[in-house]
Known about the structure:
The complex is a heterotrimer. By secondary structure, chain A is an alpha+beta fold. Chain A has helices spanning 29-33, 70-81, 90-101, 106-116, 120-129, 149-153, 156-167, 212-223; strands at residues 141-146, 180-185, 197-199, 202-204. In chain A, strands 2-1-3-4 form a four-stranded mixed sheet, with helices on one face. In chain A, a hairpin with a 2-residue loop joins strand 3 and strand 4 (202-204). The longest helix of chain A is centred in the middle third of the chain and has 12 residues, at 70-81. Chain A starts with 28 loop residues before the first helix and ends with a helix. Chain C starts with 7 loop residues before the first strand and ends in a 10-residue tail after the last strand. Chain C is elongated and about 85 Å long. Chain C is of the alpha+beta class. In chain C, helix 2 packs across helix 3 (115-123) and helix 8 packs across helix 12 (496-506). Chains A and B meet through helix 3, helix 5 and helix 6 of A and helix 5, helix 7, strand 3, strand 5 and strand 11 of B.
Amino acid sequence: MSDGGKRPWELPFRNPGWAGNTGEFDLTEAQVRGDEYVASRPLDGGHPSGAPTYPYMLADKDPDAPLFEGPYRVRYEKILTRYPDAQAALLPVLNLAQELRGHISPETMDEVAGLLGLPHAYVRGVATFYTMYNKRAVGRYLIQVCTNISCNLCGGDEVLDAFLEHAGVELGGTSEDGLFTVTEVECLAACGFPTAVQINSRYFENVTPAGVPDLLDRLRAEAK
Amino acid sequence: MAYPYTHEKEVRLLSRGWGDPATRTLAGWQAMGGYEGLRAALELGREKVIDEVKASGLRGRGGAGFPTGVKWSFMPKEKKGVHYLCCNADESEPGTFKDRELLRWTPHQVIEGCLIAAYAMQAEHAYIYCRGEFFEANQVIARAVEEAYEAGLAGENILGSGVSIDVTVHQGAGAYICGEETALMNSLEGRRGLPRVKPPFPAAAGLFRRPTTINNVETLCAVPHIVKNGGAWYRQWGSEKSPGTKIFCVSGHVVRPGNYELPLGFPLESLIHDVCGGFREGRRLKAVIPGGSSVPILSAAECVDCALDYEGVVEKGSMLGCASVIVMDDSTNIVKQVRRMVDFYAHESCGQCTPCREGTTWLSRILVRIESGRGTEEDLQTLLDLGRQMTGTTICVLSDSAAAPVASSIEKFRDDYLALIRRGEAVGAN
Amino acid sequence: MENSPTTTVTLTIDGREVTVPKGTTLLQAAQTIGIEVPHYCYHPGLTAPAQCRLCLVEVEGAPKLAASCVTEAGEGQVVRTQSEPATEMRRGVLEFYLANHPLDCPICDQSGECKLQDYVHAEGREHGRSREPKRVFGRDDFGGDVLFYGDRCVMCTRCVRFMNEKAQDPRLTVVERGNRSIIDTFFAEGVEGSPYSGNIVDICPVGALVSKDFLHKARAWDLDHTPSICPNCSQGCNIDLHTRDNLIQRMKPRDNPEVNEHWICDYGRARYEWPNRPDRIEAPFVRQGDGQVAASWEDALEALDARLSAAQGPVRAVASPFAANEDLAGLAILVDALGGGEIVFRSSRAEAEIPLPGFETLARRRDLVPNRKGAELFGMTRVGGDDATGGIEALENHEGTVIVLGDDLAEFGASFGAHAGLYVYLGSHAPSASTSASFVLPITTFAEQEGTFTNHVGRVQRFWPALRAPELARPAWAILGRLAGGLRGGAGPSAPDEAFLHAAEIVPEFEGLTYDVIGAGGAATREPAALPGS
Lengths: 224, 430, 534
């Protein structure tokens, strides 16, 4: 059918989300992302108030990394100071474990349960409730494409297809080179910047089907 | 440099610093008058702070629109142990994208709001429950909290007042339902994010079974301005029952989607056509979801003369919710979009209440069948019946939310469904 | 009726006024007047999460239907459980339960006692409307005696809460969320070895959790239920014996807040089969020369009367702590009529108790017999080791009168009692050590007779006959009472309640107790007056 010419994602106006597209605004990527305002990451001895957040998702994951040593131990201990009981630290500690290991395996759940003195089955119940805990290993880049209503109206499905095609994967699968896992994700709260895509910890906004190959090339270059 | 696209009709109160990286920093925020609200609050005293917030008529921006000052006054005056404040930054309602902007551009505004609220309600710890996916916003707000501690604005003996308030940024892990206040508390306690049965209400037994108040990010962001300038000042915008400004998140088929801070009561048509630049050439309005995916859909006719405040949208048969305006032009395949929303609710249902656990998936399966041309006219009746059976029968309102767009779309866009059922033809492409 | 306004509330449920203590929920208040509101997640022994949404009732003036399991009854409330909105909503909720249910009732053990069947039959739609493919979870072995059929599960989470709150051994959890949520354990670790896990089968309102032991063994409607007392330790858990074809098929807890609330331990539950043992003593046997020959009761008792009247030498008796108070009383009275003598008993004892942490009144007790306390109240002495052997070696060659009630004398051979002036063996089975007995008399087991046990804290509790005894077996109290009557003149008790009255005459702690007083729930014994100086 006729759609009046332009596809929805070809609308002229863009707010400055980051996909190399800041429209008419001269903001750098770091300024948009706020990367300039991360003076002391919790890992580098930052304040305990921020310890329960993970500032980044490591591209280099080590499924066998110990829980927890060195700076991670420090951060783990800082987390515990922020809650009245160990149970409340469960989510932040699972976050920390995933930051290191890339996914939360049954063994990891077990270890976390042991660390916090929680029943194993309980930790499993909690870990499986939350979608951000990867229950199995994912690629170096976990690409999550929003296909919820606002993005969908503006072509989210086409963007997802483009990722699947150019990364050469099935939905939920990981590319042969281990670089990309592509999944659908529910609304990323960037509805004004359709289509929104989250890649590891970073948001890429205003992503169009045509922009997908460049984005993947950028990631391939980063991975080298 | 101005971000995002601005419009002269906007009143940029909460969104004033957006697009300016300097605003993120403590120095930048203070240069804009930041933390004057906190100082004013400490001078006014707890009761007067609550009085000002009551006088302002500020209503909760998370969706329900409950008067904030009244909510605060539910907290025990006689303190018999720890009180908590939670800032609900688990923004995940489809169509809503204001809190992430508030967090990443004006983190100190959020913190200042938290500190004032915590002070007024004698809470010694404020948790900012930040959505898990917001890594970038997270690192910004975490840095801002760190700065606030360094400057003596948070932690022990704030600004020499003798008041101590801890602030912790807590990151979620991917669950829409944790935006529901009792589910948020469960999640913060390290549990599955299941909404709790009320009573007890959070003000009596909330986080860690202690008196707790939960406010949305945008609500807390309005507080410093109100305390600094007075409740009456805030009422210069908006209507008697819905005073103040509101950040409208406009997404979908408009030329300039984005966040626009406007006085409550702003006309919907003007928002779409003037502020957001209307539609692509040759397109016209088909439907609007005025308050995030959980509220009933408005047809084009219902958008005429619709005032965007809590009462105005209810008059038209929907709700303002968190003012997330999803605009759909006539290229929209309503059945597909409703199915996509229901899929979302099925995915995000916590699964404790049966009508929601089973109903959301059932709705989705019927809609998939209709979308693929295998539906029947009886299916429409079944959808409506199931929706009724899912409304008002569960602990929280996720189930009601899933049913609302289904029922309203069948009522208002029945022909779109019938085209698929009778002829296998979809109306609209997107 | 005088009620302090602060402690009770009066409300109207379905047009009937009811006064309940403050804090009572609507569901409980309705129960007090016999109105049953359907429910799955609510269980009286557990916290109520109000998530099954089936107990919705209409409260006048409330904007929404109320979950009656968590809504407290309020003064002057008007509640309707059967109004159009309430029944329509419950019908709606029930339809959701069936959307993914496999409807495999013909092969489901729960069929016939299934709350999903009951509620749908009572309030559900006639036909389901789902045309969609059903979700399939399959089966899982949870370990222990528990098998999980995921597709039948209604996600009431009673099992999870039982393990968390009562067993305090949180091995079960809900994993995943939404429509994919399911009960699970932490991978290989099931409920295996958790000593109260069998209760999750009982509290499962549907056929999701079933007993492996009972799997496909009997249909619920073919089972007879008889109230009884678990005989496998001295806790005295109230139970129901479920029987079919004159065999006990399984044992289920019977509610008693004073003893076992709603629970029993797996140890007791697993040991339900011994009363089914087939090799019973089928008739009274009387020694003739080298052998024992079957006799009629009339002949046997007549001969025994004569022998007892002529009995010489001291009397020594062995009782069984599996015997009822009535039986033990009969033995004590007979021994007394014979001039007195020592009565001992032997009983197994476990190394440790197994408590239920969430209901501390209940534990699998160390004494693995039901009536040790009763035997002691009758002045009988426990002898031997914790394996229920030893301690009676002196009886083997005792030359006076030997009476054995129920003890199987496991460590003795055929020569036991060969030197006795008179050796009477009363039992349900004839062990080798009964070979030399002058009289072998068939008695009933606890499952075949009416009687009482006294539990470890002195609570007297009744049980009822669940099985038909072999034709010629008699309750021991009847036989022993008849024999004592023969010695003293007069008749023995003619019914168990009368036998209990005889017991109460010789045990001061039983004073004031009758079968009526004890009722179905049992009654505590009277505290004996403390001895001066003790």
